[in-house]
Design brief:
4-stranded antiparallel beta sheet; about 25% strand; 10 helices; 9-stranded mixed beta sheet; binds fructose -6-phosphate; binds magnesium ion; about 375 residues
Amino acid sequence: MSDKITLSIIKADVGGWVGHGSVHRDLLATADERLAKAKKDGLLIDYYRGRVGDDTSLIMTHEKGVDDEGIHKFAWDTFEAMTEVAKKLKQYGAGQDLLSSAFSGNVRGMGPGCAEMVFKERPSEPVICFLSDKTEPGAWNLPLFKMFADPFTTAGLVIDPSMHDGFDFEVHDLMEHKKIIFHNPEEMYSMLAFIGAPGRFVIKYVYRRDDGEVAASTSTQRLNLIAGKYVGKDDPVMMIRCQSGMPSVGEAIDPFAHAYMVAGWMRGSHHGPIMPVAWDQDTPNRFDGPPRVVALGFQIANGILGDPRDMFDDLSFDNARKEALMAADYFRKQGPFEPHRLGLEDMEYTTMPKLMEKLKSKWEAEEKVEVKV
Ligand code: F6R
Ligand code: MG
Ligand code: MG
């Protein structure tokens, strides 16, 4: 075995069980069978099949590095096999995230979301995988900032000498396809100017400055920018390495004790709270939401993921859930009005262009009013 392992999460929505709320067990069984075979065949060291709402996550360890064609093709073929089952069962939006008709080397830009990282396993390697539904890739910006740059969240930034130099954030501009590294803490204010706009600027990786070790990786893409039309929100995933010079497990999940506001929810067109939930509460039903996040804690050993722990199945997140429910009631009372509904810029990729076109001839020029000074 090489001294480095790769952790990959490749996820997709290939059909919802009932509407966009969950995944039918027959689709999950298809994923399970294929994952078990891939492990038996030696492609994977280990795997865990995760789910949140209508999204299935293939969480995989292997030795092939990031962007590996074999791993990505395996994931693509798995989603295609699940799509076949979804079509037979007439699941909703069967094959929704498979935007291309054929695989071409890498799932990036083809619909499924993907977060990966390569690292040398430490003497003990706790990793938390966060999976979300009904929200956008930038939804991780706020918790990542808190975990890796906010000393009020992560005491280790102050107390642990190996964290004291801070962390580098790799931020991607999803519109202009550019990336930049911000060194924290000294470039924090500049970074916030960008990551505070999560619809466009998204944190892709976080690295520890002490030794350059990768600490976090997210799936960044915007489905609607790939497809050129509305195809649902991206429902991103994220992986965080914890403890021993990284945020502790408790510091990594603490940002979710506040149900912060994200874009997504109904028709991907509304702001609402993100609610941390246990796995048995991960079906967004009310107004197709509110957006949800689940957390799977793994204690990786020689590449073996083992049984994950359900990190939000904990009463210390009850207040966050209550806060989310209260915020959901508050937002919903505003119906189709901004800012519950997203602003025009984001609606641009949805129904607005068609509506503008349809009503073009009905608009009349307003009479010019002379302003006399
Ligand atoms: C949001 C989402 C759902 C759907 C909504 C309408 O990401 O997937 O909220 O947008 O249920 O779905 P359609 O247009 O398929 O009827
Ligand atoms: Mg769906
Ligand atoms: Mg989804």
